[in-house]
Amino acid sequence: MQESFNEILKLLLPEIIINYFELTSYKKENVALHLYLKEINSLPKEYLQNKLSSKGFFDEITVQDFPISGYKVYLHITRRRWLNEDIGKVIFSTDSYREEFSCGRNSCNTGVCVFFKRDQ
User: Is residue 61 a contact partner of residue 39, using CB atoms and an 8 Å limit?
Assistant: First the structure.
């Protein structure tokens, strides 16, 4: 998306989302705003010592966030799937963005926090 559009998003969405996900599209309805986010393509820090292969994405999950200007906001989040070839298992990133919510540095008032904590 355009750089100026990303600057506005930084004011509306949690910083953690802006840092680890890219907005791929959006849809505005009468009472709702749907934002479609895809995890950026960067190797999970906790698996840098392993041989990883990108294997697409996990199923999209939808999280309701705080309203914006009277619109309900739904974040449609797609996380990357990696194959750890050393152990033959599919993995996902659990690094920085999850740590920020679990260690109390953020207030965890958004649905995004619940989404990441749920997998722990």
Answer: no
